[in-house]
Amino acid sequence: MPLVAITRILRFNAAHRVYNPALSDAENDRLFGKCNNPNWHGHNYTLEVTVEGEVDPKTGYVIDLGDLKRVAERELIVHLDHKNLNLDVPFMSGTIPTTENLVVACWRILAPKVAPARLAKLRLWETENHYVDYEGR
Amino acid sequence: MPLVAITRILRFNAAHRVYNPALSDAENDRLFGKCNNPNWHGHNYTLEVTVEGEVDPKTGYVIDLGDLKRVAERELIVHLDHKNLNLDVPFMSGTIPTTENLVVACWRILAPKVAPARLAKLRLWETENHYVDYEGR
Amino acid sequence: MPLVAITRILRFNAAHRVYNPALSDAENDRLFGKCNNPNWHGHNYTLEVTVEGEVDPKTGYVIDLGDLKRVAERELIVHLDHKNLNLDVPFMSGTIPTTENLVVACWRILAPKVAPARLAKLRLWETENHYVDYEGR
Amino acid sequence: MPLVAITRILRFNAAHRVYNPALSDAENDRLFGKCNNPNWHGHNYTLEVTVEGEVDPKTGYVIDLGDLKRVAERELIVHLDHKNLNLDVPFMSGTIPTTENLVVACWRILAPKVAPARLAKLRLWETENHYVDYEGR
Amino acid sequence: MPLVAITRILRFNAAHRVYNPALSDAENDRLFGKCNNPNWHGHNYTLEVTVEGEVDPKTGYVIDLGDLKRVAERELIVHLDHKNLNLDVPFMSGTIPTTENLVVACWRILAPKVAPARLAKLRLWETENHYVDYEGR
Amino acid sequence: MPLVAITRILRFNAAHRVYNPALSDAENDRLFGKCNNPNWHGHNYTLEVTVEGEVDPKTGYVIDLGDLKRVAERELIVHLDHKNLNLDVPFMSGTIPTTENLVVACWRILAPKVAPARLAKLRLWETENHYVDYEGR
Question: Is the full-model pTM beyond 0.95?
Answer without folding.
Answer: yes
